[in-house]
Specification:
The complex is a heterodimer of chains A (811) and B (284). Chain A has 23 helices and 28 strands. The termini of chain A are far apart. Chain A has three domains: 18-24 and 486-634, Aldehyde Oxidoreductase, domain 4 (2-Layer Sandwich), CATH 3.30.365; 32-137 and 204-254 and 259-292, Alpha-Beta Complex (Aldehyde Oxidoreductase, domain 3); 296-470 and 638-810, Aldehyde Oxidoreductase, domain 4, CATH 3.30.365. Chain A has 811 residues and is an alpha+beta fold. In chain A, strand 16 (412-413) and strand 17 form a beta hairpin. The longest helix of chain A is centred in the C-terminal third of the chain and has 28 residues, at 552-579. With 284 residues, chain B is of the alpha+beta class. Chain B has helices at 14-24, 37-42, 78-83, 85-90, 92-99, 104-109, 112-118, 126-131, 149-152, 226-232, 239-246, 263-282; strands at 7-9, 28-31, 50-53, 63-66, 69-73, 135-140, 143-148, 153-155, 158-159, 166-173, 179-185, 195-204, 207-216, 223-224. The mean pLDDT of chain B is 97. The chains are: A alpha+beta (811), B alpha+beta (284). The A-B interface holds A 120-121, 124-125, 128, 285-287, 655-656, 658, 696, 700, 708-709, 711, 713-714, 716-719, 721-722, 778-780, 783-784, 793-804, 806-808, 810-811 and B 1-2, 4-5, 36, 39-40, 42-46, 120-123, 156-157, 185, 187-194, 217, 256-262, 265, 268-269, 272-273. Residues 29-37, 54, 74, 101-102, 106, 109-111, 113-115, 117-118, 123-125, 161, 166-167, 190, 192 of chain B line the site of flavin-adenine dinucleotide (FAD). Chain A: GO terms for molecular function: iron ion binding; oxidoreductase activity.
Chain lengths: 811, 284
């Protein structure tokens, strides 16, 4: 019997799932097939805002292999409205959100017709044969213009482009004082407007969905992050009884929030399969994914920070416009609200006010994207702290230190009303500075400036925290979110002593199977290899809240631990009976039960022995059920608050504007670590995505609302070749809010890195008169900022240049 | 991303390919490595009725010498060009530029002939071909003809290939002993050039004896920076002389504006990158 001696938790194990994911030895949704499977293709609106005046599908219907063609009118009665689960205010305006447009299109990319054919090829051909006439409506693209008086309207029936305005005020909430007083009495005021450009999640596996309506239940396979939520929402939206729907998320190739959605494509595939009584599959192309899957970020941030001349902050006022796109999607309205509690970050602001207006435009709807609200907030405050330091001619790290919550002050209730349970900003910062050679780089920077070097060096700091582990249900209730934030787990003890762990979390690349196995191996004293983790199928995992918001470990794995506790409690009764001892005299260690104090040689029964005995059930104590299986549902009391200090050094080529990251040091505190390799991977990926926002990615629309960055040749997702070597390290301040001491790590890198990079870029050229460069800091933008002071150069090109991305305009 | 249906043939000789192309009429297209054509088909920006695959024609592939001339078959892949010792020895500039094209997967499929025939102004191999005075040999039903690079590239994605003609080989005078560098400016690895400069120089007694400079993506076609070449010839190989000569780089260019760059910035980049390209070439 292999009793695990070395604890599994903390081991840098290679992931169980790697071989099958990396070698493609798995079936993604698009690889699945069914007898008689039909294929759906979607015709999408080329226009951003128009009335549909005529739809002619007659010739498409005649084409070989075509089974059916449906328009919005055909599906109007059944399609319902796509769900929005986060009505942030009582008076929030939420337009009807069709999966397929019926008489008006509100963004370019919205579905206007679907074809079902025997093959995907025939379906694609038939799309070309559909003829639709449109009558242009005025296009609403710019948020500031959209909220101005007399603006053209996205949804005329709403009478406004404002969906809702959400306010937090520390004076009203009793968590702080009046911000206007702080501003009036300020010795220093930093006023800035920052733009969070629109981003595209660009997960590796495009979305795909297959529906089988031929059984007693509808079975829907989808490349989704949220099989459980999807099931409930389909039931509620399409009036199909919940018990008649089974949702399966097989292996899913990334999501980053982009698959935290109930999509029009899922609804349409379902409706069409139900109508035809035949299985139907839809897989989007990369172009469709870029165009029509929800986008992220897109905020305009008006910021006012007040401080004393010694660098002590006294107040923060945040006024946001957040672009919802054409409709409210699942949690879209709440994304900026997740940021509302994070603008004050790790700093002791005495006064804070946050006002956000959510705005409709004729663009693809926005929703959660890695970090969701928190990257925006962190960017704003970390940029402001650097600006404050520059204004006062103080070291940026020193300004932060002056204002942050000291280690001995935890737990600390912030001006936004959250209680941070733990943190050690001093330790993370000290370690980061050490790894970064901070002083040497500052010296080099001074030399380059003095020499007037064409290549200038800049240093950027980001001392971030974030709230994750979504979420205490009562907090979600207070924020008017429609669901709770608990997570469920079950453990099944098989007769041969093997273990099945059922989790309500829904991994799509994170490595839950490995991490959960490590945790259960320790909890039950069974070998790592003996644990199988089941997920993503509402039939086997019947209860769950799925994976997003860095919640799986801090919420989902705690449910696993609690289920394991119940298994052990049940097993202890049987073990005591087998050892002919009183239950209170029996102890459990390293996978075996023994009589306490009986010495190592004494008779023991392993948990596997107990499992077999329970299976046989020949001789169980009175009143004990022949079953060790247990389940638990955990609702966290608090969020988890990972934090860290990231330092970035960039070289800016002042002749070309090109930015090169020279050093990147990330010291993260994510509490106790279950698997250091997985944590490292999450940090690396997160950094890449945050750096991508700082330097590379931007969804650009032209004046008619056409997305001009419609391929990966124009929407620049960086690859390993574009990123530096990351120096990563950790400090470990255990969370006090959960029994494992863990905090989330899924979003930390993304949240932290964006401001570190932009701060470094600005720092490199601040002496040349630059105090901001809009993201992404493209060579053109940086060069213009240096030479003309313009911070937002570029964007749209009137003509097509060369390269793949421009071919649409030239061929 | 599913292309419209098309017919497909894969002839094994140039004659058969030319015949197939002319028989198939206007809607037919040849396919080489497919690295530019397939995206166009998949995005349904084009729907040729027939594809004539040149991939099975041995005579179109490979590098050989023909006296003072280096001959590269149109179907020679980027990967083969990069690694060919004759190309390194006699046309280093082309090898340097090919090194910067895309990624290994694309380089194993994409071909020199395909790149030149596609005539993407941001393509990296057009400027070297122009700077090195390449001659492009094309074959049609009326026989073979040789087109100088100066006459081959006519506009955005347009060449002087006539309907029914196939590009067969690229002939280059030998630049044995020249040094070269291709300075490419783009935003992420594996992307096309925003601007790039192809420079080849021959130094004699510390003086620049000969110079060739070509510009990528500075007009609808590749541009030969003759004013820079003239200014370099006879100069000592010093930073001052190079910077001075590079000031002429934007003369005669007509770049476009797109999301990455506007006209002024592109012209500025042309000057900066020309200086860097020549400097780097001289230090090879
Ligand atoms: C992801 C990606 C990145 C890329 N990055 C770069 C880059 O950085 N720099 C760069 O320069 N290129 C880049 N390319 C393009 C690549 O270099 C292609 O190989 C090249 O553009 C076309 O060559 P091909 O052999 O694939 O031609 P194909 O795609 O097969 O054909 C292209 C066109 O030329 C015609 N054609 C091809 N061969 C002949 C012939 N012998 N005679 C007549 N007509 C012919 C075809 O009919 C077609 O119209 C990239 C491509 C991809 C997919």
């Amino acid at each position: 019997m292999t009793a695990t001696i070395e604890p599994e938790v903390g081991r840098a194990r290679l992931r169980k799932e790697d071989a099958r994911l990396i070698a493609g030895r798995t079936r993604w949704t698009d690889n699945l097939t069914l007898p008689g499977l039909l294929h759906m293709a979607i015709m999408r609106s080329p226009l951003a805002h128009a009335r549909i005046t005529r739809v002619d599908v007659s010739s498409a219907r005649q084409l070989p292999g075509v089974i059916a063609v449906f328009t919005g009118a055909d599906l109007a009665d059944e399609q319902g409205s796509l769900p929005c689960a986060w009505p942030i205010t009582e008076d929030m305006l939420s337009p009807n959100a069709p999966s397929i447009a019926v008489d008006q299109v509100n963004f370019a990319g919205e579905a206007v017709a679907v074809v079902v054919a025997r093959s995907a090829y025939e379906a694609a051909d038939a799309i070309e044969a559909i003829d639709i006439d449109y009558e242009d409506l005025p296009v609403v693209l710019d948020m500031e213009a959209a909220v101005a008086d007399g603006a053209d309207l996205v949804h005329a029936d709403l009478g406004t482009n404002k969906s809702a305005t959400w306010v937090f005020d520390s004076a009203e909430a009793g968590t702080g004082s009046e911000v206007e007083e702080a501003i009036a009495g300020a010795e220093v005021l930093i006023e800035r407007t920052y733009r969070q450009q629109r981003l595209i999640p660009a997960f590796m596996e495009p979305r795909s969905v297959m529906v089988d309506p031929t059984g007693e239940q509808f079975t829907l396979w989808s490349a989704t992050q949220i099989p459980h939520i999807l099931r409930i929402m389909l039931a509620m939206t399409l009036s199909v009884p919940e018990h008649k729907v089974r949702v399966i998320a097989p292996d899913v190739g990334g999501g980053f929030g982009g698959k935290l959605q109930v999509t029009p494509e899922e609804v349409l595939t379902f409706l069409v399969a139900r109508r035809l009584g035949k299985p139907v599959k839809y897989t989007e192309s990369r172009s469709e994914s870029i165009l029509a899957a929800h986008h992220g970020r897109d905020q305009l941030q008006k910021l006012t920070l007040s401080a004393r001349r010694d660098g002590t902050v006294t107040g923060l006022k945040v006024e946001l416009l957040a672009d919802m796109g054409a409709y409210l999607r699942l949690v879209g309205p709440g994304v900026p609200i997740l940021g509302a509690f994070m603008f004050n970050s790790i700093y002791k602001f005495p006064a804070y006010r946050f006002v956000c207006t959510n705005v409709f435009t004729n663009k693809t709807p926005t929703d959660a994207y890695r970090g969701a609200g928190r990257p925006e907030a962190t960017f704003a405050i970390e940029r402001l702290m650097d600006e404050l330091a520059a204004e006062l001619d103080l070291d940026p790290v020193a300004v932060r230190e002056r204002n942050w919550i000291r280690h001995e002050e935890f737990p600390f209730t912030t001006v936004a009303g959250l209680t941070y349970d733990s943190g050690n900003y001093e330790a993370a910062t000290a370690r980061a500075k050490e790894l970064f050679a901070y002083d040497a780089l500052r010296a080099e920077q001074a030399q380059r400036r003095e020499r007037g070097d064409t290549v200038q060096l800049g240093i950027g700091t980001s001392t971030f925290t974030e709230m994750c582990g979504l979420a205490p249900s009562r907090v979600l209730g207070a924020l008017a979110y429609s669901a709770g934030g608990w997570e469920h787990a079950a453990i099944r003890m098989l007769p041969t002593g093997k273990v099945e762990v059922v989790t309500g979390s829904s991994p799509h690349g994170q490595g839950h199977e490995t991490a959960w196995s490590q945790i259960v191996a320790d909890q039950l004293g069974v070998p790592f290899e003996d644990v199988e983790v089941l997920h993503g199928d509402t039939q086997s995992s019947h209860k769950g809240m799925d994976t997003y918001g860095s919640r799986s470990l801090t919420v989902g794995a705690i449910a696993v631990v609690q289920a394991a506790d119940k298994v052990k409690a049940k097993a202890a009764k049987v073990a005591a009976h087998m050892l002919e001892a009183a239950e209170s005299d029996v102890e459990f260690a390293a996978g075996a039960f023994r009589v306490r104090g009986a010495g190592a040689d004494a008779t023991s029964v392993s948990i596997q022995d107990v499992a077999l005995a329970v299976f046989a059930a020949h001789d169980l104590p009175e009143g004990v059920e022949p079953n060790l299986d247990s389940e638990a549902t955990f609702d966290p009391e608090n969020f988890s608050f990972p934090h860290g200090t990231h330092l970035c050094a960039v070289e800016v080529d002042t002749e070309t504007g090109r930015v090169r990251i020279r050093e990147y040091v990330a010291v993260d505190d994510v509490g106790r670590v279950v698997n250091p390799l997985i944590v490292e991977g999450q940090v690396h990926g997160g950094l890449a995505q945050g750096i991508a926002q700082a330097l590379f990615e931007e969804a650009v629309h032209d004046e008619s609302g056409t997305l001009t960055t419609g391929t990966l040749a124009d929407y620049l997702v960086p690859s390993a070749a574009d990123l530096p070597n990351f120096t990563t390290d950790r400090t470990e301040t255990p969370a006090t809010s959960n029994p494992l001491g863990v905090k989330g790590v899924g979003e930390a890198g993304t949240i932290a890195s964006t401001p570190a990079v932009v701060n470094a870029v600005v720092d490199a050229v601040r002496h040349l008169g630059v105090s901001d460069v809009q993201m992404p800091c493209t060579p053109l933008r940086v060069w213009r900022a240096i030479h003309t002071g313009q911070t937002d150069a570029g964007g749209l090109g009137g003509e097509a240049g060369g390269g793949l991305g421009s071919m649409g305009g030239t061929q | 991303m599913i292309p419209a249906a098309f017919d497909y043939v894969a002839p094994t000789t140039v004659d058969d390919a030319v015949r197939a192309l002319s028989e198939a009429g206007e809607d037919a297209k040849v396919i080489a490595g497919g690295q530019s054509l397939l995206p166009v088909l998949r995005m349904r920006l084009a729907a040729p009725s027939k594809l004539i695959d040149l991939g099975r024609i041995p005579e179109l592939r490979g590098v050989r010498e023909d006296g003072d001339t280096l001959v590269i078959g149109a179907m020679t892949t980027h990967y083969e060009v990069q690694r060919d010792p004759l190309v390194r020895e006699h046309a280093l500039l082309l090898a340097c530029a090919t090194d910067t094209v895309a990624d290994p997967q694309v380089r194993h499929r994409g071909t020199l002939g395909g790149s030149l025939a596609h005539a993407d102004p941001a393509g990296d191999l057009l400027a070297p071909a122009l700077a090195l005075d390449a001659e492009l040999v094309v074959s049609g039903m009326d026989g073979r003809r040789a087109v100088p690079a100066t006459e081959f590239f006519t506009d955005f994605f347009e060449t002087s290939l006539r309907p029914g003609e196939i590009l067969c080989e690229i002939r280059l005078p030998k630049y044995t002993g020249w040094s070269a560098h291709y300075e490419k400016f783009n935003r992420v690895a594996q992307a096309w050039s925003i601007v790039a400069v192809a420079a080849a120089v021959r130094v004699e007694n510390d003086t620049i004896a000969q110079a060739r400079v070509g510009l990528t993506n500075m007009a609808a076609t590749p541009v030969r920076a003759t004013a820079v070449e003239q200014a370099l010839i006879g100069q000592p190989a010093t930073p001052e002389a190079i910077t001075e000569a590079a000031q002429h780089a934007a003369e005669g260019t007509a770049p476009t504006t797109d999301g990455n760059a506007d006209v002024e910035y592109r012209q500025h980049l042309a000057r900066v990158l020309t200086s860097r390209a020549v400097t780097a070439a001289l230090s090879t």
